[in-house]
Amino acid sequence: MNQFDMPAWRPSPSTAAHAAAERREAARALLQSPVLTAERHPHELALVHRHVPALMQTFFRLLGYRLVVESGFARLSKTPLGPEEGPVRWVRTGKRGVLDSAAYPLFCLACAALLAPGTGEQILISGLVEQIRADAAAASVPIADDRAGHRRLAQVLGVLVAWGVIEETDGTVGSWRESSDEALLTINRPVLPHLLVRRLPPGAVDVSGLWSQEPAGEEPRRSLRRKLVENPLVRREDLSEAERDVLSRERADLTRQLEENFGLSVEVRLEGALAFDVDGDLSDVEFPGAGTVRQAALLLIDALLDIGRPNAGQQASVGGRTVAGLGCSWEAVDTELSSLVGRYKKAWAAEYVGDLGRLRSEVVGLLESVSLVETDDQGVVVHPAAARYRPEPRRVPRGAPKQGAGSPSSAAESVSEEEDL
């Protein structure tokens, strides 16, 4: 053969499958951590670099997200969902903390201080905090000069460390938080201009307006895919007519796209759709799981469904609208939680056993964060999808010892003596 007779090279099926697996792993890494840096995520960033064009096209075409990739970092900029399209996903700090709405203006001010002219490659944490406080005063952004304000600033700086925007060169943010110890921080300057998805309006203290609605004329396939990727559960009543039509007519394509590109499995039911990750890596909220709050949430769902015995297609009113699900009063919620505390008080954390109000707040907050309940002043509405988390009875071998009255029942295998630390 001469060079003109040579057939075009095509990757073997095994090579193509390997490349697809790498792209999916890289896409999942970006969804899990939208800022990847060479120092903190060398393996994941290497995968992103290997498949930059394909990943850029995938994120923009399927979800409307923009991906910026440079030698030392990758930044996935997401389009926020509106508050009625699912729970707001606050930036998480550690196992249980989140950046609340009061911390977001401080986050913006911290980025501005790091980008300010004259700021070198390194900065003392005391100087950075002093600059943030001065800029906050000039912009009329409240920042308490007490332990709570100190803790909130430490949370903001901790997120910047976790994202690889600043590096703790000498000393730590944690030590500064606990005892105001000095620390030297090194700035990863190239990623800073890409950190904020949108500008904070001048003088804005309330950042709730940043959770934008979808742009007019948003393509329904893309908006539906985005909702499924960002939320564990999408309620049918929260979808537009065009999105419901896509869900009904193009279910097979939708399922294939989310599975091939992001490793998500989709279940479509009458009441909506559920996208779940069998590996459990993508969710920012662990449920089900170990710990008092997660165990209590799982058992509360089971108890409420047991006493309510909902029928197919049952609806309830919440917040002035009618939704699919089982309505339960706050009195019923408190009664069932009190009963569960009585049964499992030896296994659950004392801080929750002795404070039913706190337990209810955190349990319901967890269930709201995964869209399994909605709440108003009257009580909660449990979505039909909660039934998939009901534990199944298991057969006890003949002659096996029976469980004691104070131990978790066989109907809740996930309950353990591990505390929610």
Describe the structure.
Mean pLDDT is 81; it is low at 203-217 and 401-421. It contains 14 helices and 16 strands. Strand 15 (373-375) and strand 16 (379-382) form a beta hairpin. By secondary structure, the chain is an alpha+beta fold. Strands 1-3-2 form a three-stranded antiparallel beta sheet, with helices on one face. The longest helix is centred in the first third of the chain and has 20 residues, at 13-32.
Strand fraction band?
A: 5-15%
Residue windows where pLDDT falls under 50 for at least 5 positions: 203-217, 401-421
N-to-C SSE series? HEHHEEEEHEHHEHEHEHHEEHEEEHHHEE
Largest sheet composition: 3 strands, antiparallel
The shape, in one word, is: globular
Which oligomerization state do the chains in this entry correspond to?
single chain
Instruction: Please bin the fraction of helical residues.
Output: 40-55%
Spatially, the strands of the biggest sheet line up as: 1-3-2
Number of helical runs? 14
Tell me how many strands there are: 16
| Mean of pLDDT | 81
End-to-end C-alpha gap: 69 Å
Structural class label:
alpha+beta
Rg = 24 Å
Keywords:
14 helices, single chain, 3-stranded antiparallel beta sheet, 421 residues
